[in-house]
Amino acid sequence: xxxxxxxxxxxxxxxxxxxxxxxxxxxxxxxxxxxxxxxxxxxxxxxxxxxxxxxxxxxxxxxxxxxxxxxxxxxxxxxxxxxxxxxxxxxxxxxxxxxxxxxxxxxxxxxxxxxxxxxxxxxxxxxxxxxxxxxxxxxxxxxxxxxxxxxxxxxxxxxxxxxxxxxxxxxxxxxxxxxxxxxxxxxxxxxxxxxxxxxxxxxxxxxxxxxxxxxxxxxxxxxxxxxxxxxxxxxxxxxxxxxxxxxxxxxxxxxxxxxxxxxxxxxxxxxxxxxxxxxxxxxxxxxxxxxxxxxxxxxxxxxxxxxxxxxxxxxxxxxxxxxxxxxxxxxxxxxxxxxxxxxxxxxxxxxxxxxxxxxxxxxxxxxxxxxxxxxxxxxxxxxxxxxxxxxxxxxxxxxxxxxxxxxxxxxxxxxxxxxxxxxxxxxxx
Length: 429
Ligand code: UGA
What we know:
Elements: E1 2-3, H1 7-18, E2 23-27, H2 30-37, H3 48-58, E3 61-65, H4 67-70, E4 76-79, H5 94-103, E5 112-115, H6 123-131, E6 137-140, H7 150-155, E7 160-164, H8 169-175, E8 184-187, H9 189-220, H10 224-232, H11 253-266, H12 272-295, E9 304-308, H13 323-333, E10 337-341, E11 353-354, H14 358-362, E12 367-370, H15 382-388, E13 393-396, H16 403-408, E14 412-414, H17 419-426
Helix pairs in contact: 1-3, 9-11, 9-12, 12-13
This protein binds uridine-5'-diphosphate-glucuronic acid.
Uridine-5'-diphosphate-glucuronic acid binds at residues 118, 143-147, 200, 203, 207, 241-243, 245, 248-250, 252-253, 312-313.
């Protein structure tokens, strides 16, 4: 039984069904449940719609409204409801508490209540108290799914983390994943809860560090690309999460860094290292904005700026805490005329014109800015882009484009931490 059909809940439900478990997914949104029961998946997750369809056909997966009825014969209930950032940066647990309150008295004895949503350390204990039922097991089983690759992350995980203070309960949950042959870290509830925050916050710090090194590259005349390549071959550092950008965003890293800072504060620990990473991330967005302003002559007022990308990363249509969107809104607030294109984002957005292809973004633009690393942007005809543009500035906040291609089209190019690449390419006519 899975409560909540967002990208975590739906992926969990569909993947567990594919592993041979009988899964019922519950949501409060009636129309969403009806769409899912008909095999219609609204979120953009490669492979998910196929898994849902397979589960529906085999009968291993079903969708219903209302948790209370559905949980009566459940062996385990996965809680996959949102835990957004609440007041003061702490995780808002109202949705979790609401579901627990709704189902606690009808759960069969011995049932495992499993938190998949990212919840503060101590939540398992709090849930146990809330249920008032020592015969239930509360288990923390954090997810490490990235948006856009959630299905492959679920089915090919680096590890499974499961923690409970009820003997045997964590092993029972770990066994649900037996078919995946991933190492399992079986521990107490608080440790499992902390693993999730520690992992996401470490990734955020790694990115803030890389973005700071990129800034140093600009000031010292070095190139971030070979610098990160040279770092990444060190197996203790690893190659992933070393790409500089406009700052980290999305529905997880910003929320989890702020929640862990809050948790640290609650036990009077100054987590300066993590606060610095968060501050650096804000500064990173400001740096990209300053680059754009510089590229259009210093003043954003009246400048025509074309944005390539709005989603917080490629492969998703998610705009939550997207650095691209926050940069766009600052540009608008400073009086720039902003046109934007994102292959996965349509509709209207305040202050800017959202168009349906990349060339429309270039039309009359003083500067074109890459904000999301969609691979299709590398395949644009930059000579044609140059013809359409009014100015000649390309700001590539993802270091996505081949600088030489852009420069050969008669445009200027600046990335993040790559002053040498710009200079070298400029000298090639
Ligand atoms: C993140 C974690 O990677 C998952 O392991 C975790 O399960 C998930 O949060 C969650 O808590 O549910 P996600 O938010 O989907 O996943 O996004 P990431 O792929 O981690 O990217 C986060 C941000 O870092 C994005 O803004 C991305 O553009 C940026 N990023 C990532 C870089 O700027 N450079 C990189 O090299 C990698």
